[in-house]
Amino acid sequence: MSEHPAPTGGEPTRETTGTDVVCVGETMAVLASAEALAAGTKLVVGTGGAESNVAVALARMGHASSWVSRVGDDPFGRIVTEDVARLGVDVRGVEVDPERPTGLYVKDTGPGGAGVLYYRAGSAASALSAADADRVWSLGARVVHLSGITPALSARAAALVEHLLDRRNGNGALRSFDVNHRPALWRPRTAAPVLLDLARRADVVFVGRDEAERLWGTPTAEDVRAVLPEVPVLVVKDAEHGATCFDEDGPVFVPSPPVDVVEAVGAGDAFAAGFLSGLLDGLSPERRLRLGHAVAGAVLCSPGDTLEDLPEGVADIRGTVTG
Questions:
Q1: Catalytic residue ranges
Q2: I want to staple 158 with a disulfide (CB 3.0 to 4.6 A). Which of 133, 151, 287, 321 is the partner?
Q3: What's the pTM?
Q4: Can you give the residue ranges of every domain in the chain?
Q5: Which residues contact 149 (CB under 8 A, 6 or more apart)?
């Protein structure tokens, strides 16, 4: 695919065709139950992955979204791929690895449970590499969305993220990066400089105020902006307080609406999807933030980590879109 100049502002190029957003990263099979595993309870199989969560939410909002990853040649890989496809996401970019398994995690979160147990070492997705970039660019996306989970999987996967964020590569798509630091994958001291470097290469960056403070010692949104001044669009999320968008016109803050939280997993992915939807539709920063809050709120109020139905008020926020 021919190269186009990388965009310099906060709007995705319209020279590309096909997919609106391609999301790249690992999605795992999930085994979950409301009771502790030690009680011999039955487990329900589901799926879980930050990047595919974003792709699903964008598809629910009417955008053409794709997911690029690797899964094992096993039942879990087929379940994951079919589940994401069923929710409206293009999975042509998913490659089946005949030698490595699909990643798996178990939610043992009932009373007396052990919490979340991960079985992802040596997974198919950990073998993602820069060689997989061609599958990303072939989809002709306006936005490529990545997260800080992928570079923690392996050195090869980190090389893919670096390659996709390199402005010398690709088709002029906007690069979106959710810092999404997972302490279970790598310690803050190790992750901090890597994630800061990757964030500085992106066009759109999402980061939680608390994780930024943990990683970079930045207690306020303004402090985060000070360490990422070159990012065209920076979104700092501050949980129940609100979110701030920094761009060339200055900061915009929108408070979080009150919600009755059922489970917080997946809310950050939903927020990113809502914001990116607004970006694709040409909405103002204030409306992008409101859309992010609305979609995140829907996930916070449900037991799952994937957007099932669009919440009330989304149509009013979107209005007459231009995308």
A1: 269
A2: 151
A3: 0.88
A4: 21-25+50-70+126-318
A5: 25, 26, 50, 51, 180, 182, 185
